[in-house]
Write a structure and sequence with these properties.
- This protein is α+β, with helices and mostly antiparallel strands.
- The chain has one domain (4-300).
- The chain contains 8 helices and 15 strands.
- The chain has helices at residues 4-10, 21-35, 75-78, 81-85, 137-142, 144-148, 253-267, 277-291; strands spanning 60-62, 73-74, 90-94, 101-112, 115-125, 129-134, 152-163, 166-177, 180-189, 199-209, 212-229, 236-246, 273-274, 296-298, 305-306.
- The strands form 2 sheets. Strands 2, 3, 4, 5, 6, 7, 8, 9, 10, 11, 12, 13 and 15 form a 13-stranded mixed beta sheet that branches.
- Helix 2 packs across helix 7.
Amino acid sequence: MYSLPMMDARLCAQRPAKGPLYREWTTGLVALAQVCCLGLPLAATGAVPQGEAPAAAGPTLRLDCARGPSAENPVADFMYFVPLISLEPVVAATNPKGDHRMRVLSATRRIKGATFQVTCEFELSGNGYERNLFDYNREIRLHEEQLKRGRLLPHVLAAINVEGPGRGTIEIDGTQAKGAQTVAEVRMRFNAHGRSSPVTIALRDIRYRDGAFRPVNEVVARVNTLTFQRKPGPPKMEVSVASLKPKDAGDSTWQNLKGSLEGMAVNFLIPPLDVDARGHQAMLDFGLALAAGAATFTFPHAANLLPPSGGQGR
């Protein structure tokens, strides 16, 4: 999240007047990585601190590669990990048709000595959407005076969205000893078989204009991979993107090529992003359930998930 000393250094009176788009917005993504979370499942049976009541569980996913409607999961349930890993409040918005589904298609397991690798392929079907909208009102309140003096609040994470069909894989690496498995890394790839990823991140600047706080300079990054690793230190999530372009850019061949080139440049500059510790552990536990061939997995409760009326809309 933003801290006031850091933001004082980053607030600017106006957007740079020149320079390639990727220089402006790769800088934004680096800043995003430093000051907010995704801003892309701890098992529901995780320990509860003594004296605290256990929180309600999140949704349960079917993982058993079965066929038919009973094996399908609402994409909203699959994307529940977004408010879990978020450090900011999130509002989830789903299309009313309810036809957007996720299903695990296959699982391949490889064991070599004390290590194992598992690759699970999944499919997103239907033409719906799942939008996770981040509530940045706290940041606006924190910097209200600077904004009213004409400063800019740059590179705010506005949303993580998934829209339409797609194919992806969940790849798990780990170790095993005496029959116990430990997950070291979980990679969620959304662009399997050469198909474009349906997952995007929306970024925007905030400016005070005409008596209101308004979004400006909006861009969209198309996400290829989210990676969670077990390692010492604060929990992080690595992100790789396929493209980066303004929200109102066209869908021409030139715009898509330009966005892809800028996306490749961004990937060299994005450091791992800070995420919630419980959500990070949940993703490692999700990987363990897939590695073990579990039929289902239940997410823990996402404390930062707000009711639909509680967040910052588009």
